[in-house]
Structures are given as C-alpha cells and as structure tokens.
Amino acid sequence: MKQSFINTEHIEGRVYEHNLSIKTVQNEKSANFGKEFISGTLDVATDEEGLNVLTVHFTYVTEFTKSGGKNQTYAALQKIINEGKTWIADGKDAATKVKIDTNLALNDFYAQDDSLVSVKTNEGGFVTIVNELCDLSERNTFTMDMIITAANTVEANEDKGITAPYISLRGAVFNFRKDVLPVDFFVKNPAGMKYFEDAEISGSNPLFTKVWGKILSATSTVERMEESAFGEAAVKTYERKTKEWVVTGTAKIPYDFGDETVLTSDELVAAMQNREVYLADIKKRSDEYRANRAASANAAFSSGNAMNMPTGSAPEAKKGTFNF
C-alpha cells in the first residue's frame, strides 16, 4: 500500500461569516481538562461576487501542537474571532482574507429512517491570514487519489435543473489514516466525459488514479406547485444549496491497482471492512441516543421500561467487486 494517499484541498478568499468560538475541555477525566480549544465553522467566499462560499469545519484546534510549539492555525482563528471582519457584517472590501489547506472528510450519520447519510465536508487544516489573494482559478481546488468503481452518465433534465449531461464518478478517496471514504465527483468537460466512458469502469474493474478539480457551491431557486382541489394551486419557492467536486483533470497514467506498493484488492477489502465496523459503532450510538430519548419522554408520562433498540452486526465486504 502507498505510504500516503493524496487528499488535499486549497480554499482561499474572504471570510464570509463564521461561528468560531473558544471553548474549554469539560471532561474532568480528560488529561486536557480545562484547556482551551477552538471549534466551529469558517465560511470563505472564493470568488469576487460572494456566490462560491465554502465551509471549513474545525472540531478541536488547540493553542499548542503535540510537540509543544505554538499552533499557527489556533493563532489565526483566534485573530479572526477577536479582530476579524466578515463579508456579511463588514462588507466585501473589509473582509479578512485567508488561505486554508484542508482535506476532504465525511460527516456520517443515520437519519430518522435509519438510512446512512454521508456528507462531504472540508475538515480542519492550516489557516493563514493573508494580505493578497492568489489567482481566482486557484482559490477552490482539490487533488485526490481516487479508486473509481462507477462512471455513470447523467442526461440533461430541465425538470431537475440539469442543463447539460455529465458523468458521475462513484468511488472512494482516503484520509491520512488511510480510512476509505466513499464519495461521488462530477465530470462536465466533454473530453473528460469521453475518457471515463471509454475506461469501462466497474466494481470488478476499478480505476485507481489521481484526479483534480474545483469545489463549487451554488444556490438555486426551486419552485414546487401543490395542486388544490379547488381554486389556484399553491406555489412554494425555496432555495437549494449544493456543493460539487468537479473533476477537471486526471493523471495520464493511472496507478497499478493490485500492485503491493500501490493498493491491493485485499487491502481495499480490509479498508472497507474497517469502515463497516466504524459505521456499526455510529449506528449503535445513534440507536442508544434514540432509545435514551424515548425513555426520557416515556418517563415524563409513565414509569414504564425504556425501549431497547437492537443493533445489527456489520456486514462483511466481499472480495472482487467494490461498490461504493
């Protein structure tokens, strides 16, 4: 297996808004009890119109690194909290300029209907306050090692707001721990679409390669009409925000999937099995939370026993075919 997989994103622009805050560790059993850290989200407008706004999540940023040195990202976020200007509150020209080198991650959770939801996020990274921004074309980029298991053509559909056909790449990327992260990227360039159409990609014939492109955020207005038994139909208008990872290029020569120095089938199977164990733990904690919440609600009306919600075991990944 490769020593490390590429998973990098570069986000640069003006601080649009944020909900960053300085907190302290509340767990008395923790070795870091009482120590300060920063968490929250930082929204960055990478374009000049404030339309391509990308969110970066920070879960636990400490003042000092593990080696005891000053954490420059903590210092930058602290300055944004105390002195920073935002596009929303202070206007575009006054907004603090930042560059962030971050990574793609997944926010995995189970919905009320027990379906798995995996939301692509920009997680953590290195933050620097800058005086000048880089070229517009370089402010919202990503580069990933991706194992691609499907390349499906999506046709244009005016009703769904799809103005032109594109390719949906389904597969997985990896984080620094080499965890497998199932994702989907888009290809809209005609030459790129043809390249992936001709590659004959499938679960049993995956393509492992380096891809790069742009992270795009868009807000569209959607109208839904609800018919009425009499009178005029009710028209509801709402905004839909979408984020797309659009592939604009790929390595000329793919990696040799199956090579021990790159990635073997057995190693990918093991990574998939580890993800199933991880998801089973999330499912268990989700079920326990719902059971406790239901028990608390029932206790308010009766002294009955709390509902026990069973947790299934993680399914085993099969060798040979990879379907993310």
Could you walk me through the main structural features you see in this protein, from its secondary elements to its overall organization?
The chain is an alpha+beta fold and 324 residues long. The protein has one domain: Nucleic acid-binding proteins (OB fold (Dihydrolipoamide Acetyltransferase, E2P)). It contains four helices and eleven strands, in the order E-E-E-E-H-H-E-E-E-E-E-H-E-E-H. The longest helix has 35 residues, at 265-299.
Structural class: alpha+beta
Shape, per Cα inertia axes: globular
CATH class: Mainly Beta
CATH architecture, by name, is: Beta Barrel
Spell the H/E element sequence: EEEEHHEEEEEHEEH
Mean pLDDT level:
90
The low-pLDDT segments are none
CATH superfamily: Nucleic acid-binding proteins
Number of domains: 1
Q: In angstroms, what is the radius of gyration?
A: 23 Å
Largest sheet: 11 strands, mixed
CATH topology: OB fold (Dihydrolipoamide Acetyltransferase, E2P)
Oligomerization state: single chain
Number of helices: 4
Measure the end-to-end span: 20 Å
Question: Helical amount among residues, as a percent range?
Answer: 10-25%
Quick take:
The protein has helices at 72-83, 87-90, 190-198, 265-299; strands at residues 7-18, 21-24, 36-45, 53-62, 97-110, 116-130, 140-154, 166-174, 180-187, 207-226, 234-250. It is 19% helix and 41% strand.
Outline the secondary-structure elements.
Elements: E1 7-18, E2 21-24, E3 36-45, E4 53-62, H1 72-83, H2 87-90, E5 97-110, E6 116-130, E7 140-154, E8 166-174, E9 180-187, H3 190-198, E10 207-226, E11 234-250, H4 265-299
Parallel strand pairs: 4-6, 9-11
Antiparallel strand pairs: 1-3, 1-5, 1-7, 2-3, 3-4, 5-6, 7-8, 7-10, 8-9, 10-11
